[in-house]
Prior knowledge:
Layout: E1 2-6, H1 12-22, E2 24-25, H2 30-37, E3 39-43, E4 49-55, H3 58-66, E5 68-73, E6 76-80, H4 83-93, H5 96-108, H6 115-129, H7 133-144
Parallel strand pairs: 1-4
Antiparallel strand pairs: 2-3, 3-4, 5-6
Amino acid sequence: MDLTLLTGFGNEAPYVNSLLENFKPRLLEMRKFALENRVLLLWSPGGIAIDIALAGLPFEETAVAASSPFEFAEGISLRTCRAEDLIVMKAFADRDRDWADVKGIVTRQKGWINWNYILQQLEPLCIAKENPGIMKKLRSMKNQE
């Protein structure tokens, strides 16, 4: 399960501490790892892996603000991000499993994706990460759509 928690910058520790009091960490020294890498890796009580991104970038603020509730079952809803924002987040993570997720999103949302928005949001993130290969990979996927 992938979640985003809008913590800002410099305010992460109280959130991390609280979550570590209530969930089992997936790594030793999870608190240190989370604060250095801005991701908290936990186990749910049912054994489901939970990845919590500690968000603070303007793009992440925009994605959270644009999220909307999705009712998974009667009385059970979560805020979910737009497909475009999820593509940006997954592409930026640049892991094999994330690219598989991007491909699935592109397939399901074919014809409905706002590629201009995605490329506009992702490019400055890739520049900051010094990884232009992400943009190349995503443009290739776009061209195959």
